[in-house]
Specification:
By secondary structure, the protein is an alpha+beta fold. 30% of the residues lie in helices and 34% in strands. The protein contains five helices and eight strands. An eight-stranded mixed sheet has the order 1-2-3-4-5-6-8-7, with helices on both faces. Helix 1 packs across helix 3.
Length: 182
């Protein structure tokens, strides 16, 4: 990708909206920072302060400005409060990575699945990216089940794929293709 990117608003079902981050989204960053797992695998700060929360949000803006990718706050349309994050990171050879997290208070409500469906359709159809990939640890059944409900296909197990908290971890590889939309 060359140059700055514009992070649009993308409807994610009837209940959720993918939108650019705002500084008033720090409450969900604080909740994510308190999670034992999210800071290990994302750039959410493990030692939260309002300054660190705002810095996280500014980093999300910077990803688009630097042309690296699209980081969305997942907001509940009832009150426009952020409940999680999803990102789409275009890469080489027609591939893009997808990553997401949902705050503990919003889990079990279909947030991840709705966000994955929306960002997938937008990335595949809207941006014309041929292949989306995501990685999920085998123990994280709620996450990989959301990916499967959103139409991602498990392609295999990548052994010792990623460093998570100073330890090499296995990851399932999932994909969704533009041809899956036809």
């Amino acid at each position: 990708m060359n140059g700055p990117l514009a992070v649009p608003e993308v409807q994610a079902g009837e209940r959720f909206l993918l939108r650019p981050w705002r500084l008033d989204d720090v409450a969900v960053v604080a909740e994510a920072a308190a999670d034992p797992y999210i800071p290990l695998i994302t750039s959410v700060p493990s030692d939260y302060s309002d300054v660190e929360g705002a810095a996280f949000i500014r980093r999300q803006w910077g990803r688009a400005v630097d042309g690296v990718g699209y980081s969305f706050a997942i907001a509940d349309t009832c009150d426009d409060q952020a409940v999680g994050q999803i990102g789409l990171w275009p890469g080489p050879r027609g591939r893009a990575s997808v990553g997401y997290w949902v705050a503990a208070s919003a889990r079990g409500q279909g947030v991840a699945c709705a966000a994955l469906r929306a960002v997938s359709f937008w990335g595949l159809e809207g941006l014309g990216i041929p292949r989306l990939e995501l990685h999920v640890e085998p123990w994280n059944a709620p996450s990989w089940k959301a990916a499967e409900r959103a139409g991602f296909i498990r392609e295999g197990l990548l052994r010792s794929w990623q460093d998570v908290g100073g330890e090499r971890r296995d990851m399932y590889l999932y994909s969704k293709l533009i041809s899956d939309l036809e």
